[in-house]
C-alpha cells in the first residue's frame, strides 16, 4: 500500500511546538521507492481515455475509470466534447465482460454517475451495453449486483421509454443463456425495476418471458420466475396483470397457474407487519423456499447483516431485522429461544464491526466534499468521542478521519484542539491531546480506493500491532498509534 502524504511548507522536524503545517493536497504522493512503479493515478491530464481503457493492465483500467468518473462530476459537458464516443463505449462493453469483478464494479459505477451527462445519446449508449450490463444483476459479488441495480434504475428514471428495449434484452438472456445460476439471480433481482414511474408502461414482454421460462426450465428457476411474476401482479394491480396474462397463449397461462399457486403473499388481517415496499422478503413459497436463521429471521435478511461486508447493506438489513422483532409473535419467540445464545453473539459481532465502517463512510464523504460546505463544529462533536471508543477498530477509523479533518481545516487547529482538550478533561482521558497532535504532525491521509473503500494511511499489521516496537510506540511521534492500540491505558507520562 502507498499511503497518501501531505506536503507542508515546513519540514516536520522543524515545526515549532503545537504548530501544524499547512497541508497542500489530498492527492500528493509520497516519494516512490525504487522498487515501486509509478501509480496510474498520476497519469498526464491529456490522456486518451478510450485508448487507456483498451489496456490489459488491471490498475490502468481501474484508475482510468476512476478519473472518468471524476471528470463527469466536474464537467457536465465532457461527453459532448468527447471525440471518440463510439470507441469509448466499445471498450466499456469489453470491460463489462472482464472476469475481474473490481473492474466491472468501477465500470458500472462510472456509468451510474455519468448517465446524466450523456444527453440525447443516453438510450443508444446504455442499450448498446445492455446485453452485458443486465446479467450483472446476477453477479456473485454483491457490490457489483448492487451498483448494477442502481445504474439500471437510474437509466429507467432518465429514459422511461427505454423499458421496452431493456425487456427485450432480458427476454433474450433468460431464454437463451445456459448459465442457470446467473439467470435465476437476475430473475430474483429484476423486481427492483418495478419503479412507481413505470407502473403504466408496457410490461407484457416481461410476463411473456417469465411464463415461457416456467415451461422450459428446471423447477427451481420456474419457481423463481413465478415469484417475480407474482410481484409483477402486485405492482401492476390484478386487473392490469390479468389483461396481460389473457393475451398470452393458453399454454403459458396454464404454466403460470401451475407454478403461481405455490406462491403466497402475506396479505390479509393476519399480517402483523406494517406495509412495506415489494421485495423478495415479502414473498415466500408455500413449499418452504424461504429459509430462516435463528428460527425467525429470513435468510436473505440475515445474510445482509451477518454475511455481508458492505456497511450500507448491513444498515439496511438491520432496519428490516428491527421490523421483524417489533412485530414478533409468541410462536416466533418460542422458535427463537433455542437459538438465543448464537442470536445475541451474532448481533454483538455485527455491532462491534459496524461502527468503524460507518466512520469510514463519513470519512469518504468528507474527502469528496468541499471544505466550504462542511460544518466542522458538528463533525468534531461527532468525531472526538470516537477517539475514546472502547473498540480498537473504531479508534483506528476515527484517527484516520481526524487526519482528513485536520487537512480540510487548512492549519486552523484552534477549534479542533480546544474540543480535544475539553474531551480529555471531561473523560479523564490523559494523553488524548498528545495523541491527536502526533497524528496531525504525521501529515498522512487515508485514500479512497477504486471500489470506494478507505485505505488507511497507518494500517495495522494485525488487530493488535502496527509493527512498531514497544520502545518506539512510546515515542512522541507514535503516540497516536499507542492510543489506538491501548486507548490511553499505557500512555507514557509527559
- State mean pLDDT (0 to 100 scale): 79
How widely separated are the two ends?
Answer: 33 Å
The oligomeric state is single chain
Give me the CATH fold name of the largest domain.
Leucine-rich Repeat Variant
Poorly predicted parts: 1-47, 266-290
Roughly what fraction of the amino acids lie in strands? under 5%
Query: Superfamily at the CATH H level of the largest domain?
Result: Leucine-rich Repeat Variant
Strands across the major sheet, in which order? Answer: 1-6
**Cα-atom radius of gyration:** 27 Å
Major β-sheet annotation: 2 strands, antiparallel
Count of DSSP H/I helices? 23
Architecture per CATH nomenclature, i.e. the level-2 architecture of the largest domain: Alpha Horseshoe
Helix-and-strand structural type: mainly alpha
* Highest-level CATH class of the largest domain: Mainly Alpha
Residue share in helix: 55-70%
Give the number of domains. Answer: 4
Overall shape: globular
What does this protein look like?
By secondary structure, the protein is mostly helical. The protein folds into four domains: 4-27 and 369-486, Leucine-rich Repeat Variant (Alpha Horseshoe); 40-158, Leucine-rich Repeat Variant (Alpha Horseshoe); 178-290, no CATH class; 291-355. Helix content is 56%, strand content 3%. It is built from 23 helices and eight strands. The chain has helices at residues 49-53, 58-74, 78-81, 85-96, 101-114, 122-133, 142-158, 163-176, 180-189, 204-216, 219-236, 238-246, 250-260, 299-307, 311-326, 330-336, 340-367, 376-383, 392-408, 414-427, 432-442, 470-473, 479-486; strands at 4-5, 263-264, 284-285, 292-293, 297-298, 444-445, 447-448, 454-455. A two-stranded antiparallel sheet has the order 1-6. α9 (180-189) runs parallel beside α11 (219-236). The longest helix has 28 residues, at 340-367.
Amino acid at each position: 500500500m502507498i499511503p497518501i502524504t501531505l506536503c507542508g511548507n515546513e519540514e516536520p522536524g522543524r515545526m515549532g511546538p503545537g504548530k501544524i503545517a499547512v497541508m497542500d493536497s489530498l492527492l500528493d504522493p509520497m516519494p516512490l521507492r525504487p522498487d515501486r512503479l509509478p501509480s496510474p493515478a498520476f497519469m498526464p491530464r491529456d490522456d486518451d481515455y478510450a485508448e487507456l481503457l483498451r489496456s490489459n493492465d488491471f490498475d490502468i483500467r481501474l484508475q482510468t475509470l476512476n478519473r472518468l468518473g471524476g471528470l463527469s462530476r466536474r464537467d457536465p459537458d465532457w461527453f459532448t466534447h468527447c471525440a471518440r464516443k463510439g470507441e469509448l463505449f466499445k471498450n466499456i462493453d469489453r470491460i463489462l465482460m472482464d472476469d475481474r469483478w473490481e473492474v466491472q464494479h468501477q465500470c458500472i459505477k462510472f456509468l451510474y454517475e455519468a448517465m446524466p451527462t450523456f444527453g440525447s445519446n443516453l438510450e443508444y449508449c446504455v442499450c448498446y451495453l445492455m446485453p452485458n450490463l443486465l446479467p450483472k444483476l446476477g453477479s456473485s459479488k454483491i457490490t457489483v449486483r448492487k451498483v448494477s441495480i442502481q445504474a439500471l434504475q437510474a437509466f429507467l428514471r432518465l429514459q422511461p421509454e427505454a423499458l421496452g428495449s431493456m425487456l427485450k434484452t432480458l427476454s433474450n438472456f433468460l431464454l437463451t443463456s445456459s448459465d442457470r445460476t446467473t439467470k435465476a439471480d437476475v430473475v430474483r433481482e429484476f423486481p427492483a425495476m418495478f419503479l412507481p414511474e413505470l407502473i403504466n408502461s408496457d410490461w407484457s414482454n416481461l410476463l411473456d418471458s417469465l411464463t415461457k421460462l416456467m415451461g422450459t426450465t428446471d423447477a427451481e428457476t420456474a419457481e423463481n420466475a413465478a415469484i417475480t411474476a407474482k410481484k409483477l401482479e402486485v405492482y401492476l394491480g390484478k386487473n392490469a396483470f390479468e389483461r396481460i396474462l389473457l393475451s398470452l397463449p393458453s399454454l403459458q397461462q396454464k404454466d403460470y397457474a401451475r407454478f403461481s399457486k405455490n406462491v403466497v403473499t402475506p396479505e390479509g388481517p393476519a399480517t402483523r407487519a406494517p406495509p412495506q415496499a415489494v421485495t423478495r422478503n415479502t414473498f415466500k413459497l408455500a413449499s418452504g423456499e424461504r429459509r430462516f436463521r435463528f428460527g425467525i429471521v429470513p435468510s436473505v435478511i440475515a445474510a445482509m447483516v451477518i454475511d455481508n461486508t458492505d456497511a450500507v447493506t448491513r444498515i439496511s438489513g438491520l432496519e428490516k431485522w428491527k421490523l421483524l422483532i417489533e412485530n414478533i409473535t409468541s410462536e416466533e419467540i418460542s422458535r427463537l429461544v433455542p437459538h438465543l445464545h448464537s442470536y445475541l453473539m451474532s448481533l454483538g459481532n455485527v455491532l462491534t464491526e459496524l461502527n468503524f465502517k460507518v466512520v469510514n463512510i463519513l470519512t469518504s464523504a468528507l474527502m469528496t466534499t468541499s471544505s466550504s460546505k462542511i460544518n466542522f463544529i458538528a463533525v468534531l462533536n461527532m468525531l472526538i468521542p470516537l477517539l475514546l471508543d472502547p473498540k480498537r477498530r473504531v479508534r483506528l477509523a476515527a484517527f484516520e478521519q481526524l487526519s482528513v479533518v485536520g487537512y480540510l481545516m487548512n492549519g486552523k487547529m484552534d477549534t479542533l484542539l480546544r474540543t480535544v482538550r475539553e474531551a480529555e478533561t471531561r473523560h479523564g482521558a490523559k494523553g488524548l491531546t498528545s495523541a491527536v497532535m502526533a497524528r496531525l504532525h504525521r501529515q498522512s491521509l487515508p485514500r479512497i480506493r477504486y471500489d470506494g473503500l478507505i485505505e488507511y494511511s497507518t494500517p495495522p499489521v494485525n488487530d493488535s500491532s502496527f509493527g512498531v516496537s514497544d520502545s518506539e510506540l512510546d515515542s512522541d511521534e507514535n503516540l497516536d498509534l499507542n492510543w489506538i492500540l491501548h486507548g490511553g491505558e499505557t500512555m507514557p507520562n509527559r
